[in-house]
């Protein structure tokens, strides 16, 4: 019985920690910042996934990550080989989308 209670407490604390991380980093809207650089970054979108955007280089908020994998780890708790493969596919897709938007 004690072991079960400890396990439940541990699971609760992990869930609480993930919720706090989600608010701390991932609860903000995408913000490219006020400068005009063109730095590819990742953000956690309101639709529930990680997306690429162009960061201006200064300002913005905490919802910006250097990689898809970092975004997925901090905002979705995902890691591993499947995440690496998914991030590779997402990166190709998002880069293509950004190039198309830049040409418009």
UniProtKB/TrEMBL annotation:
Signal sequence coordinates: 1-19
Matches recorded under SUPFAM superfamilies: BPTI-like
GO molecular function: serine-type endopeptidase inhibitor activity
Origin species: Amblyomma americanum
Subcellular location: Secreted
Taxonomic lineage: Eukaryota, Metazoa, Ecdysozoa, Arthropoda, Chelicerata
Task of the protein: Serine protease inhibitor that inhibits trypsin at a molar ratio of 1:1.
Gene Ontology CC terms, in alphabetical order: extracellular region
Family annotation (Pfam families): Kunitz_BPTI
Boundaries of every BPTI/Kunitz inhibitor domain copy: 26-75
Official protein name in the record: Putative bpti/kunitz family of serine protease inhibitor
